[in-house]
Specification:
It contains 13 helices and 12 strands. By secondary structure, the chain is α/β, with parallel strands linked by helices. The chain folds into 2 domains: 179 residues, Rossmann fold, CATH 3.40.50; 122 residues, Rossmann fold (3-Layer(aba) Sandwich), CATH 3.40.50.
């Protein structure tokens, strides 16, 4: 089968969708399928993949970027039997009005909410659930209408959790088109001794850890504010952030302004992430959406560490 894969993010970028596709697509190739990928990203110094990949630069202005991306999807889609879409479904819906290919769309969160959060079209801190119910200005309503259109236009929609499926159902996707397929948990390497892990990561005192793509909806700013009080109660506590993303500079500036002992170590290989998790005393997350916690919770169960929902703790 000839599969055209369309995604807004792709390896080596951080985040769940790029990681999911990075592991899935070579398996499809091994099973005899022909894969072509269209994704955003910078084409320079890209790794070699066992399939065709075209990246469209985010440096382009948004209207031109969308036009170039849609043209790339058109060219790849003409040679495909089916589209597989990772969240970013508008260009596919546009070209598929003519091509009429089957479309499998994996919807993880709410693109409209993420876009509005990133561009400050909605109140800061508005959760994904509040966004579904709130009254919005015209430009937000238009964006939500576009999202509902392209998601409902898909032949089949897959969500990685019942919570995500509930969001999609609220947009009007028929029940017979919607399936829940949980993300798989990869086998972990043999666990490192905790004392050795703490020494390797330079942990001197109690270690609070989060692993996330650094975006506004991950709630890392909430953890930083909590650290102001926590460091008064727990001597020598340190907060380590594993991950990268567009909010990193703002979060580092916030940590410095608050006087919080926070260490941002950037995106790390899986083995290094496991090492940090072995070294940590508490693994925490405080996202503005429930879907963000799925893989984190699975990791916590495997590492047998405390899982701290900081937002609940702060409210109490």
């Amino acid at each position: 089968m000839r599969i055209c894969v369309v995604s807004g993010t792709f390896h080596p970028e951080a985040g769940g969708p790029p990681t999911f596709l990075f592991h899935l697509l070579p398996e499809l190739v091994l099973r005899g399928h022909e894969v072509r990928v269209v994704a955003f990203g910078e084409p320079a110094a890209q790794p070699t993949y066992p399939y065709a990949l075209q990246r469209v630069s985010r440096a382009l202005p948004i209207p031109l970027r969308l036009l170039v991306f849609t043209a790339a999807v058109w060219r790849a889609g003409r040679q495909a039997d089916v589209f597989f879409v990772s969240d970013y479904g508008l260009p596919v819906a546009l070209v598929n009005a003519v091509l009429r290919r089957p479309v499998l769309l994996k919807n993880v969160g709410d693109f409209a909410w993420e876009f509005c959060t990133r561009h400050q079209w909605i109140a800061a801190g508005q959760t994904i659930d509040e966004f579904q119910r709130a009254a919005h200005p015209a430009r937000v309503r238009l964006l939500r209408a576009l999202q509902r259109w392209y998601v409902c236009a898909a032949t089949r929609v897959v969500a990685p959790s019942k919570y995500s499926a509930g969001l999609v159902a609220g947009w009007g996707v028929a029940a017979h088109k919607l399936s829940v397929i949980y993300n798989a948990l990869q086998a972990a390497p043999a666990p490192m001794a905790r004392a050795a892990a703490r020494e390797a990561v330079g942990a001197k005192g109690p270690l609070l850890l989060t692993v996330a793509r650094l975006t506004p909806w991950k709630g890392i700013d909430t953890i930083l504010r909590a650290m102001v009080e926590l460091q008064k109660e727990v001597a020598g506590v340190e907060f380590v952030v594993v991950g990268a993303g567009p909010a990193q500079a703002a979060l580092q500036a916030q940590a410095q302004a608050l006087g919080v002992p926070a260490r941002f170590v950037g995106a790390q290989p899986a083995a290094t992430v496991h090492m940090y998790m072995r070294a940590a005393d508490i693994l925490c997350c405080a996202p503005l959406m429930k879907a963000c916690r799925t893989q984190f919770w699975k990791q916590c169960k495997r590492e047998r560490r405390w899982w701290c929902r900081m937002r609940v703790a702060i409210r109490k």
